């Protein structure tokens, strides 16, 4: 039996080397609906972090949910003492409540920098997609600071970042996919970028931008990535691991027609 087209579960995998993974648990959409008492239609972008203060695990999920005043995307938080669960809902930590996020407040890149949680999240007003900034002291209670400018100017009408936030000498630095295109309802990209985050002035300063050049037969030449990217500094080897949501060259780009795979790229830190 084929699975549903939309996101029907979140699965958590464990690895000893960043290359070979084994699933440790799965939480279905139906289980989330029962636990949260929300009408959840789909699950998409996920972020798993370990809280430095408590040692507990935070799992942030982008969910398509039906709630007043209308259906749209919010960010749900689950917390557990162990990745195997049980996972307990903590509620919608980023939700549609401001004019610039009436359709979506989701797909957050979240990291802890200098003891503070920082979230760059997708804010969709229904006609414009921008990046918004939120901060938190515990990863549960968030304070939204507003929309971000890019080089002190208004960003393009569709501007989406997804990746990781690292500590830099001048402040937090975002590194990941930069998406400026939507094809058939799907956000697709061939761009990789880094930005210095100026929290005080709500500004992203471009540090670098380059084209993502496919190096496998599993990626399209024009738009190889469907928005999602994760970057891990391997603590055991001198390398960076980059995981991308790759679009198969034999599939279409339109939403629900894509064939996607998670691909791993290894980047040595030294020659």
Could you characterize what this model shows?
The protein is mainly beta. The protein has a domain at 165-271. The chain contains one helix and 20 strands. β7 (104-113) and β8 form a beta hairpin. It is globular, with a radius of gyration of 18 Å. The mean pLDDT is 94.
Key features of this structure:
20 strands, 271 residues, five-stranded mixed sheet, mainly beta
What is shown here, in short?
This protein is mainly β and 271 residues long. It has one helix at residues 29-36, and strands at residues 9-15, 21-28, 39-50, 57-66, 72-80, 88-94, 104-113, 116-124, 129-136, 142-147, 149-150, 160-167, 172-179, 181-183, 186-188, 191-198, 203-211, 225-233, 239-247, 260-268.
Overall geometry: globular
Average predicted confidence as pLDDT: 94
Q: Structural class per helix/strand content?
A: mainly beta
- Element pattern in H and E: EEHEEEEEEEEEEEEEEEEEE
Strand content: over 45%
Number of helices: 1
Provide the low-confidence segments as ranges: none
Per DSSP E runs of 2 or more residues, the count of β-strands stands at: 20
Percentage of residues assigned to helices:
under 10%
Oligomer: single chain
Rg over CA atoms, rounded to whole Å, is 18 Å
Strand order of the largest sheet: 11-17-16-13-12
Largest sheet: 5 strands, mixed
C-alpha termini separation: 47 Å
């Amino acid at each position: 039996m084929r699975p549903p087209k939309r996101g029907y579960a979140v699965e958590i995998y464990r690895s000893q080397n960043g290359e070979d993974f084994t699933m440790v648990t799965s939480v279905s959409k139906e289980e989330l609906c029962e636990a949260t008492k929300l009408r959840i239609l789909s699950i998409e972008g996920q972020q798993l972090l370990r809280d430095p203060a408590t040692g507990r695990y935070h799992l942030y999920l982008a969910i398509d949910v039906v709630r007043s005043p209308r259906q749209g995307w919010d960010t749900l938080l689950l917390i557990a003492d162990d990745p195997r669960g049980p996972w307990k809902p903590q509620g919608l930590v980023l939700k549609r409540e401001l004019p610039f996020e009436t359709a979506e407040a989701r797909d957050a890149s979240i990291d802890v920098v200098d003891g503070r949680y920082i979230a760059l999240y997708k804010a969709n007003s229904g006609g414009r997609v921008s990046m918004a900034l939120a901060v938190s002291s515990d990863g549960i209670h968030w304070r939204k600071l507003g929309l971000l400018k890019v080089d002190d100017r208004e960003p393009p009408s569709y501007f989406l970042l997804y990746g990781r936030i690292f500590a830099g000498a001048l402040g937090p630095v975002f590194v990941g996919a930069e998406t400026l295109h939507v094809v058939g309802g799907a956000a697709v990209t061939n761009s990789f970028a880094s930005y210095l985050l100026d929290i005080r002035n709500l500004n992203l300063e471009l540090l670098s931008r380059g084209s993502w050049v496919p190096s496998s037969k599993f990626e399209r030449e024009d738009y190889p990535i469907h928005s999602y990217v994760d970057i891990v500094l391997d603590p055991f080897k001198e390398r960076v691991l980059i995981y991308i949501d790759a679009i198969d060259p034999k599939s279409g780009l339109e939403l629900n027609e894509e064939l996607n795979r998670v691909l791993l790229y290894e980047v040595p830190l030294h020659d």
